[in-house]
Hints:
The chain is α/β, with parallel strands linked by helices and 489 residues long.
Amino acid sequence: MKLAEILRGIDYRVLSGDSELQIQGIAHDSKEVKKGFLFVCISGLKTDGHLYIKDALQNGAIAILGERITELEPGICYIITENTRKALADAASNFYREPSRYIKVIGVTGTNGKTTTTHLIKAILEEAGHPTSIMGTIYAKIGETMLDMDHTTPEAPAIEEFLQISRNAGCEYAVMEVSSHALDLCRVDRINFHAAVFTNLTQDHLDYHHNMEQYRDSKLKLFDAPRRDESFFTVVNGDDPQGAIFVEGSGGKSHTYGVMSEAELKAVDIETGVKGTHFTVINGCDRFAVNMKIIGMFNVYNALAAISVALNEGVEIPVIQVALEKVTGVAGRFEQVTCGQPFTVIVDYAHTPDGLENILTTARELCSNRLITVFGCGGDRDRGKRPLMGEIAARLSDFCVVTSDNPRSEEPEAIIADIVPGLDKVVNSRYAIIIDRCEAIRHALYLAREGDFVVIAGKGHETYQLVKGKVLEFDDRKVAARILSEIQI
């Protein structure tokens, strides 16, 4: 595609070179540049793409788009624009020929529940005969093809490529998690969303957003941005304290769901146990039963969000019922590790105060004896949530094992020091500090007795641990299974 076509809609100025060049691809990371590429210089949170122009040129870039360029090499097309983040989204959409105009994109945002909600939406749409791709925290998947993504919502070129591949594969829908970072950093500015879903808003990412208002307002961008298809609608958790703001801020017709509020779609007669969850949905004059294998009150909300989307897409109630009953679970979300032991072991991604409270509240309801919790907090992230999570874990658990999560550049001891004041707020709280995560899991599992419930929280589906710039192999589920096999010997 010609560079001028890729730059359509962008306010730019050519410093040197020919804007009629044929471009073979777009990259914002110099390491991903290949021969014939356009390199877009992004001023990032940790580094500045302008520092890597020479690397990009060495790797084959023939055009550079930046916010400032001081050195010009002969034969290279140099272009400047005011905001390269916005320009990257525009350029990527143009390069991949605006795929979101031809496929229905459903975006799900919120602090917790995004992953499960997107999976439930996908399950229902596919049961109804609509091929659907999915992108989120765990993976991006088109049919049986899995794609690795660096973020919950990656940069614009990866999203647009994913949508183009989805369209070419015959998908009618694409369901994607949309993070607050992605919305704030313009990654989805050119996506023509068909629907937007709000799950909830609780404390997270305040290391980036600084306060809850900024965090909320970033997510609101999904609901009021100008690029929407004609049938755009929103689905909002009416029980969330921020729900009314999302309803008010919606750019299309809004639909609410809930349990406690007077929502449009409501769940009543809720029963949840270790074998599944059952409830009745009220939708106007319609009432129908839902039986699911996944458990927990939080999954009732996730299911209601998915049901609301499906009903608005014209999916028949019996199809919704069948689809939800078929779902056995989502990787790392209240996932059981079973090796014949006489107690329950759950691995969950819960890494926020609200997420941890939801998981432990459900575990407490299902637990016939003691609740033992293994958890930590991620490094280089919102420090304010650390004591909150400590208090929640101590209040709801009989015993806690505090350990390392993904410490990143921080010292695990420093992170745990931030957690301990929360633990100590609870009278008679009982806990151990074991920095090595494997040994922490081992300690909890060796403590467990018949009827106990062990929750290993924080990492869920992750198969790695991030320590001092290194990516170490670590999977809570595999570690727990290996230790359980030792116990059985």
